[in-house]
Amino acid sequence: MQREVIAPFGIVLERRPSSSKWADWSWKITEVIPDAPATDGWTVIHEDDGVTRYLSSPHMLVLHHKMVEAYDANIETGSPSIWAMLDDEITPAMPPYRPRGVTADPYEAQGVLDSAAGLVERVAMPRETVAWMAQYLASLPEAPAFRKRRRDRIETEKQIFGKEPIFSPLGRREERES
Questions:
Q1: pLDDT tens digits, 95-117
Q2: Could you write out the three-class secondary structure of the chain?
Q3: For 127-160, how does the pLDDT look when each residue is reduced to its tens digit (9 = 90+)?
Q4: Could you report the per-residue pLDDT of 12-71, keeping only the tens digit for each?
Q5: What is the phi/psi pair of residue 69, to 5°?
Q6: 61 exposed, middle or buried (CB, 10 Å; 0-12, 13-18, 19+)?
Q7: Cα gap 23→26, rounded to integer Å
Q8: Residues with Cβ < 8 Å from 145, sequence gap 6 or more?
Q9: Close Cβ partners of 56 (under 8 Å, ≥ 6 residues apart)
Q10: Adjacency order of strands within the sheet including 25-34
Q11: Which residues, listed in sequence order, are joined to residue 43 by a DSSP beta bridge?
């Protein structure tokens, strides 16, 4: 059993003119490319009619054996996805994002989305990646079924040093004395 497996991906980011009067550009992650060639930062891969596409790679998708439940939830949705995560770039660079990474864990992506910083996009998982991920998940042993613990019996206080217990199984002191 492998504890984790890794696959390299490239992130494709698209810039197009914005329809909003408050922003010049609209940014969107359009796809992830498995085994994309390595780049030094963002590289322009396509430019046409004001639409520019950038590629940044490699970014490693890591599947860990302890996250099986999250990966199963991803696959069972019917449309397995990869989330590409970008952080805002502080410098006035173009594009204004720095890649954080890619994940197949929907809960990790939601955690990044909750921070409300950067850009997180859900993109379709390539078929060969779905097969690779399913093969890894099948190689792992079945997780034990959830079993609710039963509480231990609570011991009532014992009478020590001549004092009566606070919670007596015999009832309240006033009730016993009358």
A1: 888 899 999 999 999 998 888 78
A2: CCCEEEEEEEEEEEEEECCCCCCCEEEEEEEEEECCCCCCCCEEEEEECCEEEEEEEEEEEEEEHHHHHHHHHHHHCCCCEEEEEEEECCCCCCCCEEEEEEECCHHHHHHHHHCCCCEEEEEECCHHHHHHHHHHHHHCCCCCCCCCCCCCCCCCCCCCCCCCCCCCCCCCHHHHHC
A3: 999 999 989 988 888 877 888 888 777 666 566 6
A4: 999 999 999 998 889 999 999 999 999 988 999 999 998 999 999 999 999 998 888 899
A5: -60, -40
A6: buried
A7: 7
A8: none
A9: 10, 11, 13, 39, 41, 42, 43, 99
A10: 25-34, 4-17, 51-64, 43-48
A11: 55
Token digits of residue 39: 């780049």
CB 75 within 8 A of CB 138: no
Report pLDDT for 90: 80
List the structure tokens of 41.
């930062």
Query: Of 104, 150, 149, which is closest to residue 123 (Cα–Cα)?
Result: 104
Task: Please enumerate in sequence order all residues whose Cβ is within 8 A of that of 143, keeping only pairs 6 or more positions apart, or say none.
Answer: 68, 69
Nearest in space to 98 (alpha carbons), one of 31, 178, 13: 13
